[in-house]
Amino acid sequence: MMKVEYQFDKMADRTIDHARKWDQKIIQSKYPGTPKDCIPMWIADMDFPAAPPINEAFMKIAQNGAYGYTYAYDEFYEAVINWHKRRHGNQVQKEWITLSYGTVSTIHYLYQAFCQTNEAVIMNTPVYDPFSYAAKHNGLQVIANTLKNVNGRYEIDYALLEEQLRTKRPRVFLFCSPHNPSGRVWHIEEIEQVAKLCQKYGTIFVSDEVHAEIILSGKFVSALQLPKEYHDNLIVLTSPNKGFNLGGLKTSYSIIPSEKLRQVFRHRLEMNSITSPNLFGVVGIITAYNQCEDWLDAMTDYIRENYHYTKEFIEQNLPNWELMEMTASYLPWIDISKTGKTALEIVEPLAKIGGVIIEPGTNYASDGENFVRLNIGTPKEVLVEALERIKIFMAQN
Ligand SMILES: Cc1ncc(COP(=O)(O)O)c(C=O)c1O
């Protein structure tokens, strides 16, 4: 079959989808006075148009004009099972899969299903903020298992983890695999070490794998690859939302091998009427998994180029910025402690004076005070302009 060429140099029009990332009302409310031509590198979605088969599938539905209630029909389960087998070598059974309305809301339901008020949950920090704010919204304690920065790469502190599991007895360990921020892909030995400790202390091991589809180097291994003995204590959360840029469809799913855990979890979903899914969300998952693998590979190649460009640019032009090793996703994580400034001291004036919006590390639960995060999921031309602006700003401030 002839290889299709995709145009990742082309921006989608982000006004039509009212993207929060680009929306002036949202930008001005957060950073008043930011120039209108600012470049947003904050919220984690990408600026490329989606894979053509996804757009065609949506147009077919729109041309037909029926938007009634739907359900998780067989093609959805088949697409998920086949994708996991083909792409990740995971053997997933149909009954393990439960559709839900986005991973963040699923985290809320999961905490509600398995934790009582004032109980604790544990996570490696810094981490994607909703892991901790979902806990706080539900009256739970957050235990931060601080990651160790070993030569620019995160490592898990197992001794500290064991101590925290033993003394605080958290109900849930919410693991981020690959990790956000930093894009660290965990090895199977590391995942097993965590799963083993969770099992020993009766903590449910939840692996959020939403960043697993964009792998820049090495190999992603899902927690579903763990030996069967860990399956009774395992919940995997995932979706094509990051890889195929479908976050606005608010559709995702969980994979829970244990019938016992599944029943508790599904009961909580039923209590909140998480039943009839979004029509486009289900079609998006099926089409992405069945027809868009070559688009994903081509897009990953493009991100890899952007990453190499960013890495070289930082090395040559931003001597006090230290990029952490990134092997997954499109969100470089940078240690700025050598600048002598905090993340907010850089991020706020960079928006208002420099015209580039990046994420301060303070947005990542804890332990991110000396970091900033970029979003390089954008055409190269936009990335180059943003980095040039950052260079000028850092030289003058
Ligand atoms: C680790 C992680 N989990 C979940 C999400 C969001 O998932 P969803 O849009 O399906 O709620 C993100 C978004 O960046 C993320 O980084």
TrEMBL record:
Keyword NAD belongs to the record: no
Keywords, comma-separated and alphabetical: Aminotransferase, Lyase, Pyridoxal phosphate, Transferase
EC numbers, comma separated: 4.4.1.13
InterPro entries in the record: Aminotransferase_I/II_large, C-S_lyase_PatB-like, Class-II_PLP-Dep_Aminotrans, PyrdxlP-dep_Trfase, PyrdxlP-dep_Trfase_major, PyrdxlP-dep_Trfase_small
Signal peptide (residue range): none
Enzyme class, first EC level, given as a word: lyase
Gene3D superfamilies: Aspartate Aminotransferase, domain 1 (3.90.1150.10), Type I PLP-dependent aspartate aminotransferase-like (Major domain) (3.40.640.10)
Tree of life domain: Bacteria
Cofactor entry: pyridoxal 5'-phosphate
Family label: Belongs to the class-II pyridoxal-phosphate-dependent aminotransferase family. MalY/PatB cystathionine beta-lyase subfamily.
Protein name: cysteine-S-conjugate beta-lyase
